[in-house]
Design goal:
Layout (H helix, E strand, L loop, with lengths): L12 H8 L40 E9 L2 E11 L9 E3 L2 H5 L5 H4 L4 E2 L4 E2 L8 E5 L4 E5 L18 E2 L4 E14 L5 E15 L2 E14 L4 E17 L4 E9 L9 E9 L15 E5 L3 E7 L2 E8 L2 E5 L9 E8 L4 E7 L12 E12 L3 E2 L4 E9 L4 E9 L3 E11 L5 E13 L2 E16 L4 E11 L6 H12 L7 E4 L4 E4 L3 E13 L4 E12 L5 E14 L2 E15 L2 E14 L3 E10 L2 E11 L4 E8 L2 E9 L3 E10 L3 E15 L2 E5 L8 E5 L7 E3 L5 E2 L5 E4 L7 E6 L8 E3 L3 E6 L4 E5 L2 E3 L1 E8 L11 E4 L4 E4 L5 E7 L4 E6 L2 E7 L13 E8 L21 E2 L1
Parallel strand pairs: 1-7, 8-49, 43-50, 52-58
Antiparallel strand pairs: 1-2, 2-3, 4-5, 6-7, 9-10, 9-41, 10-11, 11-12, 12-13, 13-14, 14-21, 15-18, 16-17, 16-19, 19-20, 21-22, 21-23, 23-24, 24-25, 25-26, 26-27, 27-28, 28-31, 29-30, 31-32, 32-33, 33-34, 34-35, 35-36, 36-37, 37-38, 38-39, 39-40, 40-41, 41-42, 43-46, 44-45, 44-47, 47-49, 48-51, ...
Length: 867
Amino acid sequence: MLNASKIKNTLRPSLFGGLISVAGSALAAGDIEFNTDVLDLIDRTNIDLSQFARSGFILPGTYSMVVQINQQSLSEQSIAFYPPDNDPKGSEACLSAGLVEQLGLKASVAAELVWWKGGECLDIRGLPGMQVNGDLATATLNINLPQAYLEYSAINWDPPSRWDEGVPGLLIDYNMTAQSSHQKNDRVRNDLSGNGTLGANAGAWRLRADWQGRVDKDRERADRRSRLEWSRYYAYRAIPALKARLVVGENYLYSDLFDSFRFTGAALNSDESQLPPNLRGYAPEVVGVAKTNARVIISQQGRVLYETLVAAGPFRIQDLNDAVSGRLDVRVEEQDGSVHNFQIDTAGVPYLTRPGHVRYKLATGRPSDLQYGGDGDVFGSGEFSWGVSNGWSLFGGGITDNNYRALTVGAGRDLLVFGAVSVDVTQARANVWHETLSGKSYRLQYSKNFEQYDSQITFAGYRFSEKNYLSMSEYLDARHYGRNGELAGRYKYDGYTENWKPIGGSKALYTATINKHFRDLGATVYASYNKQTYWERPATQRWNLSVSRYFNVGTVKNMNLSLNLHRTQEYNYKDNGIALTVSLPLGRSGTLSMDANRAAGDNRFATRYADRLDERNSYQLSAGNNAASGYLSHIGDQADIDVAASKQEGGYTTLGVSARGGGTLTPYGGALHRTNSTGGTRLMVDTGGVPDVPVRGYGTPTRSNAFGKAVISDIGSYQRMAASVDLERLPSNVEATQSVTQLTLTEGAIGYRSLAVIAGEKAMAVVRLPDGSSPPFGATVKNLKQQDTGIVNDGGNVYLSGIQPGAEMTVSWGGSEQCIVTLPVLLPTDGLTDALQLGCRMVARDQSLPEPDALTGTRNDTEKTSS
């Protein structure tokens, strides 16, 4: 069986200049007859062009090839070529059952496939229009299939048959922020906060443990408050056959019909992320304005979801998980010591389902509180959405325990050019406070993407609840505080506002998010609105309006004017804010901005200058209101680091540092890396032990560590992604023979791919056999990793790459390895300017080449050679 792979073009131009002139034509078996008279050779009898002699013909054997399906790359795999039953002199690629499964054929098509070679290989003649071609020069197997045979596919989405569960491994991700503040009276306050995830992958299972903590220390008061808690332990896996996600352990109820609460148990949900991109929902986003460099913490029911350090000015956080639902708490801690909070209500697009499909969510377990543990009786919940026709969907669900039950029914309608709308009603009944409360809640949702107007109503919703309506989470609060005797259980302590507030009593909830682009004017408008009214207490609301426009003034191009308005009303707290920013470009990448903003009755004016030092480092300087601040952001291979410092009138100074990163360990090695989404999907790229190789996934490339490993994190689940070697930044002594790989990973997977990289010097060499002759013209030279490093030219001349001191390479012709060359232990210190003289010792015909030593990279001395 042959072990050939790709043929690399490392010959001098004279070789292919001669091969272009071909006398004769293809023979019956596909042979090509070369006119060797045009080659400038001393010895025309010592030529081996067998590997070039057949046009499109591949000798029977097994080859390592990258498979491309309709120009979409799969992983490299072994492809066998066999003579067809009706053509003993021919050769045809064998598409095994495992490879055919990756094609993503429709079930009806897969059921009628025809096989040959005893059922081992697919007979492509059973699929009219299918073409399969192998190309040794690029080590590629090209498969072209009519789209009618395939499942639904999109540009960056693969069907489940091509999903990769990744490799076993361990991970630890973190997000840490440290801040120190100092006042003139020598009062110093230090605090450290963070959150992260520990995890392990085994097959399709993902085991995770989330943690969060904070340490505050005040030197003047000599007190220290610290808290470290594991917010949840859980395991999950994808079930592609059901388009679902199974979660066991501590979890939150992610529902399209009911509000969210924490519980310990199991949940089986239709996973929207496993659907094609245009059938998914959207992730919530948080918009606000920071008066100074600030720390932004987004949490839900006490669990930290996101924490980051932002520069002064408007901020917009858009990388929250799309599984997040319900009410989110946002805390903005300014470096001047002030803190302001607000809440946003997230919501999903109307609950619609494709015709003939059913989406569902099932959960059971015991409600639990992050601080108090078990906090209720065993419950069960279920919901579904059924695509009745091309426009209508019916949905409903229920949730119940011993003393609470709720039932929801609704319908959704795809209005085509007018968007999508859904309406539902929920009836709830609760036994609490020694009485039975019963009430209804009504909801209306709408979304629309007006592509022709470059605008989108991401979500618009309205919910009305009767006075005696209690949601499940409100019922659980009533049970908990009732048992503890706090105000007869009708009030709860809200850690968000640090006040006692009534339980239940919600009346109406209004939510809306709108985007609009005015391309002709170069303007963008973003607006969001949240309002909650109650039966017996004041309403809460928050609205935000952002307008941005680019314009030119004389010779100054691409100036920007942005206006941000917001209003927050939370019980006894009100905050109206406005921020106006004018910015103009300076230099190649710098931006000068002038700000005027008012928030919480405080007027502020500032001038900011932001610029990039390089691709990895950027900074911002700000001055105004008797204060100055600086912000530096660094994108590293092992972590992202942000540093913020400020000094204000009165001797108040602050310094903050945040770091986001992680570590991943697999059976193939480990690496530290940057990350934003803790516990998420990632890809380990192996560069074959070659360090400092720039690898790009998206954004700023990372570099392989000392062991030749690099990790690309924050990869989208169930979306095709590509990783590649950044050829423009390769070190001069490194060459990539395979620079791109593609794959689609399931949620939380640790993917693994190796890219063929050769490290070492490059030089001309002359190869001589023991009798003084030369290997034949066209013989190939490979290193011990079976990577092509050169092709022999006239007189044994060869241009070698990947030269390592003392390493060994094999020379092959006639379809097998014939001899071994050993490179000098000491290479010339003044550069490889002269041709290396290399002797090639022959391999005995009765002895195959031994495997190289795993540590030294050289072969065992026991191999048989002949002189």
